[in-house]
Predict the 3D structure of the following.
Amino acid sequence: MFGRTKPLWDTGPELKSGYDAVIIGGGLHGLATAYFLASRYGMRDVAVIEKRHIGFGGAGRNTAIVRANQRTQENVPLYKEALDLWPVLTRELDFNLMFNNCGNLNLLHSEAAVNAARMNIATAQFLGVESHLIDARQAKEMMPALNISEDITYPIMGAMYHPPGGIVRHDAVVWGLAKGAAALGVHIHQHTEAAAIESRHGKVTAVATSRGKILTPRVLVSAGGYSAAVIHRMLGLRLPISVLTIQAMVTQPLKPLLDHVISSGAYHVYANQTLKGEIATGAHMDPWPNYTTQNTAYYVKHQAEALVEILPCLAGVRFMRTWAGLADMTPDMAPIMDGNHPLEGFYMDCGWGYFGFKSCSAVGKYMAQYMAEGRCPEILKPFALERYEQHRLMGETAALVSYSPDN
Amino acid sequence: MNRLRALPTFRIDPARRVAFRYRNRSLHGVAGDTVATALYANGVRIFGRSLKYHRPRGLYSLDGECSNTCMQVDGIPNVRTENTPLREGMQIKEQNVVGSAAFDLMAFMDKLDRLMPAGFYYRSLHKPARLWPVAMRQVRRAAGLGKISPDFRYGGRCDEVYLNAEVCVVGGGAAGMSAALSAAESGLRVILLEARPWLGGCFDYRPGPSQDGEPLYRRSRELLRSVSEHPGIRVFTHSPVVGHYTDNLVTAFQTGEPGDAFDYRYIEIRSRTVVVATGCIERPLLFEHNERPGVMQVGCAQRLARTYGLLPGERAVFSVGHDLGLEAAVDLSDLGLEIACVADLRQDGHDEHLVTQLAERGIEVLRGWVAARAHGARAVRAVTLATLDGTVQKRLDCDLLAASAGLTPVVGPLTLAGAQMDYDAHTGAFLPSELPPGLFTAGRLLGLHDAESIETSGRLAGLQAAAHCGAVDAAAVVELQAQAAALPGPQRGSKLVTAPVKGRKSFVCFDEDTTVKNVRQSIARGFDIPELIKRFSSAGTGPGQGGIPGHNLPLLTAHLQGKPPSSFVSTTIRAPLVPVPVAAYAGSRHDMCKRTPVHDSQKAAGGVFRRMGVWRRARYFSDDFSCREEVRNVRENVGLLDASTLGKFRLHGPDALKALQRIYIGDMSKMTAGKIKYAAMCNDDGCVIDDGVVVKRGENDYYFTTSTARAGATIEWFRYHTRYDGWEFHLVNLTDAFGVINLAGPNARKVLEKVADADVSNEAFPFAAYREFTAGGGAIAVRAMRLGFVGELSFELHVPSSLMQALWGLLEEAGKPFGIRNFGVEAQNVLRMEKGHIILGQESEQRTNLLDLGLGFLWARDKGECKTVGEAALRHAENDPGRLKLVGIRMQDPQRAPKDGALIVDRRIRGYVCTARHSFTLEQAVGLALVEEPLAGIGTRLDIYEDECRGELLKAEVVAVPFYDPDGKRMRM
């Protein structure tokens, strides 16, 4: 039924002395860009270099929620396309990405939150994305475990219901993209660390790695939480990015209990049930910049306190495992995608905070276009770095961001 | 099932029966039983079915290393019954079965393993695409173990304790107790944590001899007595450590005993040092059907008899790899178990004394043999033993197979603490190569087997911890180190990875049904390190975490690739080390909201409260959420608003003015006494983060207010932006010290006149003035401001919190003839919107700057060398045409205000409505909106897109603000 067992991708290709493109970072964005370069733009002579193993960073640590109910018209279309791409990629890669299109319920606990959600909903509807405001009773019907009583810290007044969203199996995306890219000729070099980007006359010429120099006219840095440090070290370019540790956890596996992704800004918590039955939950970011990926005792308690209020039946369930990853946060909670600056042939795709997973498919497609054609696709233009120099932040967050005091 | 006659090692009281219900049957256990041992006593051998293949699963360990005995207890799923104490009246159900655990209709899944190789789901069920949603539903139903009702409510009591200690000892066996004693004898505060309900560890049940010839169990009770008598040691039993965080923050989770005032207790300990003496668990032996009910670990079999008085079977075969296995065989034989054979995978290195004892009992010991296969469909009926190379085999009938490959040190707390693990060629275990400072180890986890060595290592670790804390000098440590070095060191561990089998049904991970074959498949797919195999095959991701596969997976990964065992390390162990109920972490409820001094008065007046940040505030005073009456009364009579949540600060000191100049965008140097200055703070992007009023109360002494939301962040904001200046100023947060009453409406002065001890006429106390006077006949000191946020004559009265209720009462009484009434936050929202006054966060978003809000007049451009925060960005923004601007809008249909959050659109989104209401005062629908600058001109027609409008747009026009009383006459009355 499954044929001969062979590696999903070539795990040990020879490191050539030159490639048409080098991608630093074997996470979702890097692999997706490599896949689309090879599949859509015929650029197959591509190397993805990864310091550890592919999917080590945020790709393997996120909680796999996908949605397209962001706040601004610059963001929504990108995430919508990312949603639309899951079935396409499943087919193309012949790999089950396990898109569970269960929809997302964003709980609202105040009049102000309802109004803020209404703007997101109107934006989604205006842009052709399904999203609705529902009241607490409707939310309870959709999710019987929900506590809609008044007797909690932040009583639930309603919810933003977003049917097109859901959960995708994150590891499957990593492996599927690696499989698809490698099959088209992309070389994936694991345990290979990028050391420097070399240039001449303002143009990228090579990438120095722990295994030798690779000549290339174009390089993409998409190293997740490490991008800002990598870019600063290699090019001296300081990005307005704060790297924070974000934590998540799962309970022991249960029979189906939550049929939708649920999240709450007031409680600062989200929860969804994986296909294996675990309740995956998280949201907390420690508000001090660090690269530790350490968990904190405070976080587990916070999460539990929040969960037993909105989903009280979970009091009887056990937490099984916590972990943490890095979120590279920009001041406006929108990413930086830019190219040919400060060097021709240098591209960056970073600042994805905690939303890099849900965007990876579409971003891979457009960054590939950017790199293949050398011109910025319309849809990526609003994400250029220069917006910070011009004090023109994106409106992706309504509230003031307070994860570091210098925002 | 009959219990053994009383043994000195019993932890049960056979005379006290405990009734419980299991599958609608009433059964009895005895006091001291766990749920699983009570079931075992009642003949239950199959406790549940496995996740994927629905294989029967039985009692394997007694410490919850796998989910074999997970059941539903009192509505709670996935309870590890093997270490859950039995309580009177418990309701026990099986889980993940169709039918019963003994006869599960899903048992056929076990035959389908060839259809389900490692990671099969990634490569199937997605073609054709429409199959997936259907298949996914089946996958969800099949997955998961226990079931919880959405209506389940946990009724237990949860406690939390937060402790400090110099030494925290993890593990209450002989080593841990010795460590606690030696540390406590140095005068330190010691906390001893033990996962089992009693101290003693592996000494607790063993009759083997200790160094002085006494049985080990007696020795452990002696240690226990010393520990309990020492006042410096606090003991927590039934408290497994679940987390270790930065700087030795240790968390544990305790289960209450009968008589305790809690069911669960969360324990958090900040300790200067930690001694880890967690001992060992057994390394599971990999052979065909190695998890068949009837196969159990050696310690499990021995403890069933010794601790719970249950003979684990009738005829047993042992397949072991360490002397504990031989010792247990001798002991169980003496307790009446027939032992057919002991296969020891070691060729040499046995304790010959134990071999002799076995020979005396007529028990054959096969050296270099191992169990290769367990037979029996639902429980073990026979076993095939084989030589290590598999060339010679023999089959023996039995109903118990005590199997274990060797020992695995319990290193979870060490890895959480950041200890680096390496393969140790002598013990065959993964042991810390380096320990972080303040962390010490002791006991069996180091590979020690000799009783005296174990105790001495414990005392040594306790002393090392004491030395780390400075309580003893290093010489004492050196001396004890020398003693310890003279005792037997770590025992050589067995190296066998798997029995000589193909491994189709040899389970590496019980919880996830991962076999040796699955690991081989994963490697063939390119997943060649334990961390990736874990992800691809799920091994180790189940409720038991790394307990069962933790040691074997890296060994097997190396073995299958022909690499040395030192090539890999175990997968990362993560907190909680033991699954912990969410209820235990949640503890008692923690809603720490603040109430204003007049909360109760407002409640009595019919206030409808909402949580706003840390506060609870009265949002409405009737069921009419349009607030028509509240608004009318302020416009026509007089209203009373509780504004106590405003941030309130005193800023004083020689450099106070410099700080104000840095933080506020306006020029604060020209303030005069008795006059209010409305001012705003921007961030580095020029975006408005706060607005409020500032008054100068004296030389270098200021009083200012901030918005409710910013109150908590203000001091840090000042400090951050002046951090390099060395200025001397002091900020005092008076938010909770003062209550604020807003008395507003055309009759406001008439009311205040009756209460204030001062002249409050328009001449004596004009608009925008600040006065301090007393009220109520000198009893209440008032700081009063003439403001006009709601657009009427109004007084903002700041009074000490303790006196606010008194003033509130006086005003209500005085206001009766003038129609005074409470109004809430929403009425204020409508009133101020009609007046065109903004609320930050509502009329602004993160990126909205001072100019966008039309507040450019607050900006003083020539303040000198102040380095005002945000000024550079504002200069830049002056020439930026592409920004959203705040405008007033009037709807074409006066009855139809758009909902807040509706969009301004043409072909794109051009802005949005911040606040809009039908104004009863103006008989118009008006609002404030942020729109792109080209649309901001007065008279511009706007199309408004509301959610669910289906393309039917509302029409509006940009108009001038304020809508109400544009000349501001009413607030200056």
In short: Residues 402-407 of chain A have pLDDT under 50 and may be disordered. The domain at 21-63+170-240+332-389 of chain A is CATH 3.50.50.60 (FAD/NAD(P)-binding domain). The longest helix of chain A spans residues 76-93. Chain A touches chain B through 101 residues (CB under 8 Å).
